[in-house]
Amino acid sequence: MQLHKRDVVDAATALLDDYGIADLSMRRLARELAVTPGALYWHFANKQQLLGAVADRILEPVHGERGGWRARIVGICGQLRDALLSHTDAAELVSASFAAGQSEVMDDVLTQLGAAAAEAGVTAANAELAARSVVYYVLGFTADEQSRMQWDAAGADVAATVWNQNPSARFAFGLNLLVDGIAAHSRADA
Amino acid sequence: MQLHKRDVVDAATALLDDYGIADLSMRRLARELAVTPGALYWHFANKQQLLGAVADRILEPVHGERGGWRARIVGICGQLRDALLSHTDAAELVSASFAAGQSEVMDDVLTQLGAAAAEAGVTAANAELAARSVVYYVLGFTADEQSRMQWDAAGADVAATVWNQNPSARFAFGLNLLVDGIAAHSRADA
DNA sequence: ACCTGAACACCGTTCAAGT
DNA sequence: ACCTGAACACCGTTCAAGT
């Protein structure tokens, strides 16, 4: 039967979850789908575009949140982190897709964070910057967290003491640094 | 004549500057040095370790700064950004080496940022986190900035308006968000 | 100690040709 | 429209064997 984009992205996500990003190759994916590598290039222009589609699949559960600007920022960042932690190497994959401009969902996230920053009182020109800073933090923190998880899932409990205690609290602390910074740069605080 | 680690790292850096990270392969590097690929594996355990050495070569100009905690954070981050902007794809390369734990200089940077945060009044447990947040920001921002520079050096002046004006000021704004956040989380402000 | 030769097990991408 | 076959131009890594 015919190969659809959705099937390709689903198989790619399964490959990611089971073997990690290093084994997510076009050839391996084609083998899994029982097609020739060239077949994938009928549906996707290149690997980067396919990975972008996988990124957006992973980020499907990320939606906006209601409430004040603080709650909206903290909420969407929490959803983002949760989605990333649900798939092997997802933080790395989404970081790459975001940098390459291949993730529509990340663009949405950026827009929402920017709106929240604007509501906090940051000028329009700086609101996008504030939003980007938050995204850099979430992706950096989560990629770090995830690589450590995989490291000591592989049996190495070296100096894990500091990192293993309350990763969510640690995540919140760094995020609050930015939120407080945004609040400091504004007049109307909610 | 004999191949030394320094020669290998120098050649790798030249390759990076001239052709970018995508063309920095073990085989290409060996060809440039007029040796067999296997020769490189006498000097370096693997590619990751070699890239870590290149990262630390790029970061050589990054040293500490004197002054209050704010000046020390802003200073070292500025040096970091300057070093990264001096070599093609350096932000991407250093990010990867940092994530892989292969850059000693980045560990030093982390230590110095942590000390500055502690001096700002952040608790010892949170100081390292604050330091990491700053590093995530600098690497994220600069990787973004650098990829855009290369994009529109290649002739695409699409919506460059917002990004091209005062990248240094934009960098400072986001960094200040974090610095202000750190100040908000402390008692003694310098 | 340091390097070569040669192999192993892969990659992403293209494109004429088939159905 | 959708896919195969086959090629092109590569990868990182290992390791016996040479000097």
TrEMBL record, chains A, B:
HTH tetR-type domain sequence ranges: 2-62
Residue ranges: DNA binding: 25-44
GO biological process: negative regulation of DNA-templated transcription; response to antibiotic
Swiss-Prot/TrEMBL keywords: DNA-binding, Repressor, Transcription, Transcription regulation
One of the record's GO molecular function terms: transcription cis-regulatory region binding
Record-linked InterPro entries: DNA-bd_HTH_TetR-type_CS (IPR023772), Homeodomain-like_sf (IPR009057), HTH-type_TetR-like_transc_reg (IPR050109), HTH_TetR (IPR001647), Repressor_TetR_C (IPR004111), Tet_transcr_reg_TetR (IPR003012), Tet_transcr_reg_TetR-rel_C_sf (IPR036271)
PANTHER family: HTH-TYPE TRANSCRIPTIONAL REGULATOR RUTR (PTHR30055), TRANSCRIPTIONAL REGULATORY PROTEIN (PTHR30055:SF151)
Protein name as it appears in the record: Tetracycline repressor protein class A from transposon 1721
Chain's gene name: tetR_6
